[in-house]
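Workshop exercise sheet. Pairs work together: one partner reads the sequence aloud, the other fills in the structure field after running the prediction. Swap roles for the next sheet.
Pair: D.N. / O.F.
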Amino acid sequence: MLKTLAAVGFADLGEFCVGTDTVEVAQHIAKALSCKVWRAPELLSANSIESKPPNTYGGNYGLGPLPLHTDLAHWHRPPRYLMLRCVVGDPTVTTPLVHHTRALQGLRSSTVDRALFRPRRPVDGHMFLVRLLHRGIFRWDQLFLKPDNAEARDVHAALIENCLNQSGAAVTLDRPGRTIVIDNWATLHGRSSVTSAALHRRIERAYFSEVLDDQ
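Structure field:
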């Protein structure tokens, strides 16, 4: 799994530990990654915009496609990995995945290095600036990160266009236990639109954080 994550930015585990509780599965994966489970797995479902708060993806995109992003990009240190695991699947909904090196094609590294972004609102009462790619962490979220300088505005516009035009991998979480692990510091993911016939779909998500040397 580690080799696949390093090579392509995600690992498709197939129908993994079917019938096993997701908490136990997350702990097993955390051990393999030498990480820790960041918080208890969450159950995800698609709903209309009106049913979700405006500070969430559901409250902005509803049943429409979710744009490519990395999770919690507006945090100072986002979680290292995330797991998506099917509880109730649907073959019509896909999870697109694009490595950041493809998303950044055509952008000068000097422009990316100078681009500064800020969270849309304070995080834990603090406002700070972040770089798109810094110390091994790539982050991108067109909704919750706002450009703070000219370079960031150029990068923001280019990335939105690049992400729309990318046709990377796509995984269909269509069967119970179907599991993928994503390198959240390297790979963007999204979700295709959800029709009314697919509202039964349920996915569990877990985050993993690196165990730092001083912990």
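Discussion prompt: The chain has one domain: 2-209. What would you look at next?
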